[in-house]
Amino acid sequence: MSHTQEHAHPSNRTYVLVAAILGVITAVEVGVFYVEALKPVLVPILLALSAAKFTLVVGFFMHLKFDSKLYRALFVGPFVVAVAVMLAMFLIYGVFGG
Amino acid sequence: MSQTDAAAMEMHSATGQPNRKILMWAFIGSECMLFGSLIIVYMVYRGKSLVGPYPEELLNIPFITVTTFVLLMSSLMMVLALSAVQRGDMKWGKIWLFMTALLGLVFLGGQVYEFSHFVHEGLTLKTNLFGGSFYLLTGTHGAHVAVGVIWLLSLVFLAQRGRLTQANAETVEIAGLYWHFVDVVWIVLFTLIYLLV
Amino acid sequence: MAVTEASPAGASHAHEGTYSGGLLSWITTVDHKRIGVMYGVSAFFFFLVGGLEALLIRLQLGSPENTLIDPDLYNQLFTMHGTTMVFLAIMPLSAAFFNFIVPLQIGARDVAFPRLNAFSFWVFFLGALFMNASFLFGGAPDAGWFGYANLTSTQYSPGMRVDFWVIGLLVLGVSSIAAALNFIVTIINLRCEGMTFMRMPLFTWMTLITSFLLVMAFPAITVGLVLLMFDRMFGTLFFNPLAGGDVLLWQHLFWIFGHPEVYILLLPGLGIISEVIPVFSRKPLFGYAFVVYSGILIAFLGFGVWAHHMFAVGLGPVANTVFSAATMLIAIPTGVKIFNWIATLWGGSLRMKTPLYFALGFIAMFIIGGLSGIMHSSAPSDLQQTDTYFIVAHIHYVLFGGVMFALFAGMYYWIPLVTGRMLSERLGKLHFWIMLISFNVTFFPQHFLGLHGMPRRTFTYESGLGFEVMNLMSTVGSMLLGASMLVFIWNVLRMFRKGEPAGDNPWEGSTLEWSIASPPPHYNFRVLPRVSGRDPLWAEDTSAAAPGDDPSVPEPHMPGPSYYPFVTSVGIIVMAGGGLTLTLPVVFLGVALILFGIYGWALQPLEH
């Protein structure tokens, strides 16, 4: 196997930092869950926090932020289709409280 | 695993990227639809159970937060393992790989505990729609974690026997992609199942 | 043409050795050409099986209140006819072309993962046998190829019939996803030097798009099948309305898969047509980029129209309108392709050979099928047509008049490359005319039967409803249609005895598969080609694209045979059998075989 590291991968420091942020977000998620005052906006907040964690893992741990565009296309294409199909089904079934 | 298919067949790579990594990313794309469909089932049946126990009576947020954290940290171990193998530091490569698998096992143990607790509380596959869709969704995820653990332990074993070296960093990278994706799925499930209960 | 001069007397270059060797060599082979041949032969066999099932159905419907076939057998026949034609005939016939042609078209020596390729084939083949074994064990699946819940529940479908269907389709899904992933990587990464995406042959393009559809569509049906399996085996409540289960969820999951599946069946055919028409018109494809992009657009839109199969279930006016509109949109990229083919033919110097006959037949039949499709893309119109023979007519105009005509065009076009011998033009044209006429006699009346209210999936009809004449026509037509297959089979058998040697490029094709001998040597290209345009063999200078089989260059090393893919797929079937009978030891045996196969596979070097 001869291919070398063409793309600068983040350092171990970055990895630890990302993991720390992931831990903090998780703590915030659970914290928000228990705050009575935030009940009305709980869903958007949690979805946003979850999306942030998702992006961090995919972007940094899976190197999608630094890697070839090919992988981004391979992932984002099916991901967008999956999300679109899910949203359509949620709308049809009134999952969002319809 | 000494040779990739491409090397053995003197194939030329049109994109300069390794075959197996493209394969893994395409597979992950397919997995998006798999978990997407399972999530559809869970969400469509949310609140549709006619008899209890209902999710809000059973789900233990503090407990699952701990196992979620464990799984997140396993992803950190995984990137550290890859970076050690890429440096040629097989000693730490093995340690981090083993740690990743170990944290994966801890997560699985948590799931086994959770499932047996729920069954004890009267929730089985057949009890209601929540039971069926919950066990199917989290069980499918758990099965993915289990496959990942077996894969990682196989890599540790190969490294121990000297058959996994710096030259095979790609093998570790691909196992890592799989592992992180399974982690990412859990990030979504944690929010949808436990926090948006 | 420069090509024919470059390698004269093609017959002497033929590599009969590509196919030599005993049964064991076929079981362990990882050569994409041999795997392609195995796909083709077994898929054609199942095509005949599905065809015989159809003929029995037509015999039963030939006269009113017929008692030739009882309702129970009738249900099995139409279920297995649909399932067989979709999963065991058309998809693997396309896979045969993917396997044999795509690596050659992109100038590669094999697919990216040769052993995974063998695995895909064996899982398909054993899965197909598994599904059909149901006939011997208490009857075949009988709940329709769409298996609507809750007809499939243990209450309404006791016994193992539906279990065979559920587990069989799960197994076939493994094969399809593995094969599709393999072709995605192959096409992305093994293109020869100079072959940019926008220089790829159209068939390769459509294979790539089809592969993406496969990996994205199959998970949805996999989940649906798992829910159904859990309902039947473990007593879950997913499709049990008494416990709040929603039977429509099955329909959604099935059609989220099922509609892209239609394009999985269709796009390879569109790719074949886009190869055949330019070659026999002697000019490059008109509007190449439009054909590519409309293929991509069809695939994307294909994920947004599934509920048009469900207009009658009561989704409400908003959902029906949205899905109606999205469905109508698909007519645009499809129309673009048809215009491009016609524009390619326009002003070309047509050579009226059998492949072009089938391609032209395809265009005409596919337009009819497309138009009836647009008719029921409108929800109010569909409410009149759904569940009638109008839909049966439509699907057969698209899948037989469309896809099968295209696949036959592909067979007549590429079989000389596969075997090194030409099929008879005379018999080919005879086949075409019988097939075209009998196809229309069979299916055109079904439009009217449907509009007059004849329901589908019903084993008989009363006399005096005005259905007799058109049903009899349809039955007579179907017998002729079956006979046309005999002409084709005769043509193929005759070819082995007295078919003329094909030479290297009998049709003067423009793509790389024609730059090497027919049949190709096991390594395909001794020197990898290099292209600098879309139709490399029609270029002024073909020396880089067709470097020739220079014997002074050493033969390339190719991956060695392996029995692990076969062992792994046997393990999957053993596991399926254990699941079917709920025998845990058999399941564990299957898992053990799979693990043995996978570890052996992972640790075995590719060459040995």
Kindly describe this structure.
The complex is a heterotrimer of chains A (98), B (197) and C (608). Chain A has helices at 12-34, 42-61, 69-93. By secondary structure, chain A is mainly alpha-helical. Chain A has two domains: 1-67; 68-98. Chain B is built from seven helices and no strands. In chain B, α4 (61-87) runs antiparallel to α5 (90-120) and α6 runs antiparallel to α7. Mean pLDDT of chain B is 92; it is low at 1-9. With 608 residues, chain C is mainly alpha-helical. Chains A and B meet through α1, α2 and α3 of A and α2, α4 and α7 of B.
Attribute tags:
heterotrimer, B: 197 residues, mainly alpha, Four Helix Bundle (Hemerythrin (Met), subunit A), 7 helices, 77% helix, C: 608 residues
Helical segment tally of chain C?
18
Indicate the percent of residues in helices of chain A: 55-70%
The N- and C-terminal alpha carbons of chain A lie at a distance of 55 Å
- Proportion of strand residues of chain C: under 5%
Alpha carbon gyration radius of chain A: 18 Å
- The count of domains of chain A is 2
Structural class of chain A: mainly alpha
Which stretches of chain A are low in confidence, meaning pLDDT under 50 for 5 or more residues running?
1-6
Q: In brief, what are we looking at here?
A:
With 197 residues, chain B is mostly helical. Chain B has seven helices and no strands.
How would you summarize the topology of this molecule?
The complex is a heterotrimer of chains A (98), B (197) and C (608).
Chain A: H1 12-34, H2 42-61, H3 69-93
Helix pairs in contact in A: 1-2
Chain B: H1 5-8, H2 19-44, H3 55-58, H4 61-87, H5 90-120, H6 129-160, H7 169-195
Chain C: H1 2-6, H2 10-13, H3 23-27, H4 32-61, H5 71-105, H6 114-133, H7 161-189, H8 202-234, H9 247-281, H10 288-302, H11 317-345, H12 354-375, H13 379-385, H14 389-419, H15 425-451, H16 468-498, H17 564-581, H18 584-603
Helix pairs in contact in C: 4-5, 4-6, 4-16, 5-6, 5-7, 5-9, 5-14, 6-7, 6-17, 7-8, 7-17, 8-9, 8-10, 9-10, 9-11, 9-12, 9-14, 10-11, 11-12, 12-14, 12-15, 14-15, 15-16, 17-18
